[in-house]
Amino acid sequence: MTQIAYDMDAVGLFLDIDGTLLDIAAKPHEVVVPDELVADLAALSKQLDGALALVSGRTIADIDSLFGSLRPRASGGHGAELRANPGGHVELATEPVPDTVREELEELASRNKGVMVEDKGVCIAVHYREEPTIGTALHLELAAILDGLGDRTLGILPGRLVYEIKHVSHDKGTAVRAFMATPPFHGRRPMFIGDDVTDQAGFAAAQAAGGFAYSVGRDYPGVKRGFDTPADVRAWIGATVGKAEAA
Ligand SMILES: O=P(O)(O)OC[C@H]1O[C@H](O[C@H]2O[C@H](CO)[C@@H](O)[C@H](O)[C@H]2O)[C@H](O)[C@@H](O)[C@@H]1O
């Protein structure tokens, strides 16, 4: 199901990855990126004069490892990394998470079965997909770690059976604003498509700039449910590209 009937010509498109473009997998490296999706994203980016960016909690290096030749405009690490031009320089908007935090998280994972730490440098994901029932207790432990270190620049962002330890100064909203300030996005209407709590800053930034927000598979206040599944998003991208090619 797709609820988007907007003329894409003047849009700057921001796409989340996990749960939006890609089906959720048991482990981060087990996601499947269809070849057709890579080709369709390249065609759609061209159709939008380059005004398409992937905006993810993953690092840009990880995005590149998944999307092969695409090397898209992108933000990684929840706004901490920005690549303004395809295949270009990756700018870091924040410092890496301090080693003291990293060490505490590794120690926590070592004594909690089912907790997996994904160290992304600028942020750290603490996954608990293998033990979904421990979410509340894990959040309390993470909050205690950050309180103990007294570092108010870091916060906890909940995602899909994951807590992201990240700098509070940057998120998907800061990434959208940074892209919208420069070509080829400047002067277009932002459209953000995402599925997760972590996408809410992106939804809000797009709407605040006079644009659109569409959710995938879940409802968020003030956001239109655009799609039921990532397969629907992929089909919509394919159809949008197809329509342009047929015109
Ligand atoms: O902002 P996104 O592009 O949606 O990325 C969010 C996080 O995605 C990955 O974790 C999530 O997807 C995994 C694969 O489906 C799944 O196994 C995990 O449970 C999810 O939390 C990624 O590992 C994180 O680094 C991203 O922040």
From TrEMBL:
Its EC number is 3.1.3.12. InterPro entries: HAD-like_sf, HAD-SF_hydro_IIB, HAD_sf, OTSB-like, Trehalose_PPase. GO terms for molecular function: metal ion binding; trehalose-phosphatase activity. Pathway: Glycan biosynthesis; trehalose biosynthesis. The keyword Metal-binding applies. Its cofactor is Mg(2+). It catalyses: alpha,alpha-trehalose 6-phosphate + H2O = alpha,alpha-trehalose + phosphate. Keywords: Hydrolase, Magnesium, Metal-binding. SUPFAM superfamilies: HAD-like (SSF56784). One of its GO terms (biological process) is trehalose biosynthetic process. It is an enzyme of class 3 (hydrolase). It holds the Pfam family Trehalose_PPase. Removes the phosphate from trehalose 6-phosphate to produce free trehalose. Belongs to the trehalose phosphatase family. This is Trehalose 6-phosphate phosphatase. It comes from Chelatococcus reniformis. The lineage of its organism: Bacteria, Pseudomonadati, Pseudomonadota, Alphaproteobacteria, Hyphomicrobiales.
